[in-house]
């Protein structure tokens, strides 16, 4: 059982301490739980993901992020992954000249502290790619070079399946996916949840993905903090009413 605790987190952009983007976020995610973070554009959802990932552009000005009581903010980026955090970014970067296959094996080695046995690795990778309905030739392409939106998302979920994190933060995993790709990607997330008891922070602007990945909790994110939390029914309400109720309330 793993718990990620975010306590009164305040974050600004690194070169501008005056502009606070996150204004006191409190959130606790444990193994086996899926928390949907929903909110309008610009409310700070990606900032939350980047801050937890340790992106250098974002400065935590106060508050805490703890993984089983360990201070995540004191960890280097690699250490966060080793501790069991997985961050899938809204805009994944290109890694020129590195094939998917090599990239994943390097990442797995970094996270586990030892290289995976080649025989098992090849089998695991093949299995995971088949499950995500990916062409085997994909493994020999360079990371993110010319990937379509759907390929990027599949690649993220492939990474997640192979790295076996404890808590995954998925930022707009649904953006730019057609329904078929959305189903495949969602099935991948659900498979990892079922197999490993993964805890998931699912950041999304739209309720569509929540038909495929069932959240246990829904949090409405407005202006840099959680404005309201509830169960699945809150997502249904948002689908009908949008975010207006929160925005006009001046939260
Ligand atoms: P969301 O993911 O909810 O759409 P973001 O976290 O991307 O929101 O952005 C929240 C706010 O912070 C926006 O007003 C955005 O312009 C600002 N912001 C985010 N990242 C940066 C950055 N690197 N530099 C300057 N402003 C930023
Ligand atoms: Mg505060
Ligand atoms: Mg975003």
TrEMBL record:
UniProt KW keywords: ATP-binding, Nucleotide-binding
Record-annotated membrane-spanning stretches: none
Domain spans labelled ABC transporter: 4-248
Coiled coil: none
InterPro entries, alphabetized: AAA+_ATPase, ABC_transporter-like_ATP-bd, FeS-cluster_ATPase_SufC, P-loop_NTPase
Domain of life of the organism encoding this protein: Bacteria
ATP-binding listed as a keyword: yes
PROSITE patterns: ABC_TRANSPORTER_2
Family indicated by similarity: Belongs to the ABC transporter superfamily. Ycf16 family.
Database matches in PANTHER family: ABC TRANSPORTER I FAMILY MEMBER 6, CHLOROPLASTIC
Name of the molecule in the record: Fe-S cluster assembly ATPase SufC
Species per Swiss-Prot/TrEMBL record: Ornithinimicrobium kibberense
Gene: sufC
